[in-house]
Amino acid sequence: MSSLLTRARGSASTLVFLLPMLLVFGLFSWWPIVRSVIMSVQQTNLVTDPEFVGLDNFRAVLEDPLLATAVQNTLWFALLALVFGYPVPLILAVIMSDVRRAKGLYSLLAYLPVVIPPAVAVLLWRFFYDAEPTGVFNSILGKVGLGPVPWLEDPAWAMPSLVIEATWAAAGGTVIIYLAALVSVPPEQYDAAEVDGAGVLGKVWHVTLPHLRGIMLITLILQIIGTAQVFLEPYLFTDGGPNNSTLTVLLLVYRYAFQNTTGGDYGKATALSLMLAVALALLSLVYFRLTRRWSE
Amino acid sequence: MRNHRRRGLTALATIASLASVSVLAAACGSDGDDSESDGKVKITVEGWRPGDEQGTIDAVNKLADEFMKDNPDIVVEPVEWEWSAETFSTQLAGDTLPTTFRVPFTDTKGLAERQQIADVTEYVNELPYAEEFNPSVLAAATGTDGKIYGLPTDVYGVGLHYNRDLFEEAGLDPDAPPTTWDEVREDADAIAEATGQAGYVQMSANNTGGWMLTTLTYTLGGRLQSEDGTTASVDNPATAEGLQMLHDMRWEDDSMGKNTNFEWGTINEAFAAGKIGMYMSGSDVYNALVTTNQVDPDSYGLAVLPLSDSPDAGVLGGGSVAAVSAKASDEEQSAAVLWNDFYREKKNYDPAAAEADAKVLAESDQPIGTPTLPIFDEPTWQGVQDAIAPYVNVPQDQMSSFREGIFDQSLVPEPASHTQELYAILDAVVQKVLTDENADIAALLADAQSQAQALLDS
After folding, report:
1. Would you state the pLDDT for residue A178?
2. Does A160 touch chain B (CB under 8 A)?
3. Which of chain A's termini has less CB crowding within 10 Å, N or C?
4. How many domains does chain B divide into?
């Protein structure tokens, strides 16, 4: 009886301890999610009573000619970010883990971009990306006889330009994760590889990469989820231009909800958000199914 | 002892969680309790923009005190606010919108239709000048239901702003700005050639590309929508001609610079920095160029836009409406209209009020005498201009082309229906022409036409 009482009291105090967290999470994370599910089947101006419209919002989004553009652009961004952005932190980490002196300095340099507020970084890079021959990057390229490049001013160049900045901004965080994982590689395995006649690349291929496999799989799916939700770069650099060549899915969500003011279409915005969330959840599920064996 | 400590911890946790609940409750609760217990009506009003200097804030507060002396039943609290399409609806829903604020002409009808601003017809009709508004201006504050949703308080026409220094450097006469689009093109080319700066630049982003393409179309005699806002006419010869001109200036003359992604704020910034020879914007933009961008007044020039020979050629006009939140009570609506009359409208009508206002502005070094257009009839406007004449501190001589020419031009309102959405569609067209040398203008316009018509049909 008394132990039951203690246990009940124990779980009561657990609940009390949890309560602030539950409240904050419930109010600021879960309640908005529930609300957006409700909103996606409503027409509302946030003042008068919302009207139930069934699946109209989803239909309207799917019929929007800009949706295909946005999905294509997002996939293009994700692909470019994968090709350029995914190997860069890995290479940096492998090189840095081999450096013997001033290790801290390199970590600091790699991590510094992550510390700069993203909006500030974008404004800075906008300045670098000036399309005139006198722009920062273009004058550097000019010195070696290249350019000028129309960085953000050309539909074909705009997206790669965004990816370069995004890679610069995000690589540091991933480098730190890899560095931490690299510490766990037993040094005697490198010695053994060396005895077996492996060169630097051989050691990386046969020792380092197998050890990082689990981490690499996680960072890959995190990167895919992150790039599928890219918003800041296209919003601040180009506002989706030129000619919608950098319009991404999340920027389209933002446009539905806010850009047309008076047309503030929260129904369509939440409908598209939900579709994106479901697509990403399914993708993650399939990904983990497919790679389950490999990551063990 | 253990139990004791645990009880103490439990109590502590309880207090902590209760505290967090109350903090949350306070954070989520609205402080919008506008009716005071002493029977006074309390309203919050748009006072100053973010970043305004203390002088501006003091001036508004002083006027609010004066107003409250005359209207002891009303408490006015000026707050920092600036119109932003992005945050309007959420502010309204979250009770953080002032009771009254200014909205661009383009958004008034949509907000009215969505019942996000209040019908204030009966209060506006009580004002002494209710019958004397310029009908086309009042139309901008009138909903599709014929009711009045605010006071139109300032009207602009689009003008051609130019940098006199760059004109001189290029060997052009800064007192003889271009009067045809061909001359604009020639002068832009000369400026780019001689100075290395962009000769002519046009806004292209954040719906301003559509705004300015509409302006260009009007000057060439075209329209983008039927007057009743039911039929789109985006694919018309004037728009095609305008886009072709932009294309040729960008790609054949190379006189528009390499950077094309500009909107209202960034183009002002670049112009004030001496990087732009000419650009189109509202006639009142000089105020922002001075207070935000510190433009050198000596280098500034303002001309009327060149109009083609077409009988339909005109200049795009716009402005702001002082509207009232849809959530305001009847008493608050009435008080808000009274305040707008006192603070914003009377000075457009009553020379004495205009002079008093100019005096306050002069004390805090705010620009006075920037060209505006009549909200009432022209004699009323002239009377106001005469009253503020002693306080004028802007270089009006350098604006003479506009000041003298604007009254000979017909002012054409912005497209009536789904204006901002239409502008968003046109943004993409302008961007394509400015960033792709091989852009197919006819195909772009045909595509934009079908999108714009679908918008009107929805």
Report:
1. 86
2. no
3. N
4. 2
Name the packing angle between helices B2-28 and A2-25 (round to 10°).
30
Compute the distance between CA of residue A113 and CA of residue A288 in angstroms, rounded to an integer. 30
Indicate yes or no: CB of A242 within 8 angstroms of CB of B432. yes
Low-confidence ranges of chain A (pLDDT < 50): 261
Confidence of residue B372 (pLDDT cuts 50, 70, 90): confident
B24-30 contact pairs (CB < 8 A, 24+)? B24/A23, B24/A24, B24/A27, B28/A27, B30/B94, B30/B95
Nearest CA of chain B to the CA of A174: how many Å? 32
Range of the domain at A167: 58-295
Spatial separation of the C-alpha atoms in residues A152 and B201, rounded to whole Å: 17
A155 touches chain B (CB under 8 A): yes
In chain A, what residues touch B111 (CB-CB under 8 Å)? Answer: 261-262
Residue B120: domain span: 41-154+318-363
Round the CA-based radius of gyration of chain A to a whole number and report it. Answer: 24
Q: Model-level pTM?
A: 0.83
Q: Are residues B193 and B252 in the same domain?
A: yes
Q: What's the one-letter identity of residue A200?
A: V
Contacts of B85 in chain A (CB under 8 A): 258-262
Q: What's the CATH code of the domain at B74?
A: 3.40.190.10
Q: Domain of A82: which CATH number?
A: 1.10.3720.10
The candidate with the shortest Cα–Cα distance to B398, out of B173, B79, B147, is: B173
Rounded to the nearest angstrom, the minimum Cα separation between A122 and chain B is 15
pLDDT value at B24 more than 60: no
Does the beta-carbon distance from A155 to B435 stay under 8 Å?
A: yes
The answer, yes or no, to whether ipTM is higher than 0.85 is no
Q: Which residues does chain B have within 8 Å of residue A61's beta carbon, measured at their own beta carbons?
A: none
Give the end-to-end CA distance of chain B in Å, rounded to a whole number. Answer: 72
Whether a cis peptide bond, with omega within 30° of 0, leads into A117 is: no
Residues of A in contact with B424 (CB under 8 A): 255, 259-260
